[in-house]
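hey so i finally got around to running the thing on that chain from the lab meeting. sorry it took forever, my laptop kept dying and i had to restart like 3 times. anyway pasting the input first so we r on the same page abt which one it is
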Amino acid sequence: MPYRHVELYRWADHVDDEHLNRVAEAFDGLGNRVPGVRSVTHGIDIGLSGGGYDYLVVIDVDSVLAWRALRDHPAYVLLVEELFTGHVVDRVDGQFRVERASSGLGEIDMDELSDDELMAQARRAAQASMDALMAEPDDII
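ok and heres what got predicted. didnt touch it at all, straight out
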């Protein structure tokens, strides 16, 4: 069963483009170095919703054991120590089991729906996902 690890960061004022390039390079090479890592996706927040974090990371792994291997892998530990420690003012992370990659919206022609209809479908899909999640046993990890 695959799992997804999500990290969100707010940078300190001194972080510049050169530092962000080093972060990107480190994450680009991470997936190839850690067994069980399916993908590493990361980038600078583009600010569409406002008030968000500065940098976002999504890492898909094969299992909880693979996530733990990632967390403890020397390449990841070094990345955190060198590129995040002292450069981050706020961080949040979480992990969840990936049941399906579908948006829950099915085949939707976005041009055929009004914003209100699309929002209603998104709310129904989110509620269905929440209902399925709440039905899971507490000891999945």
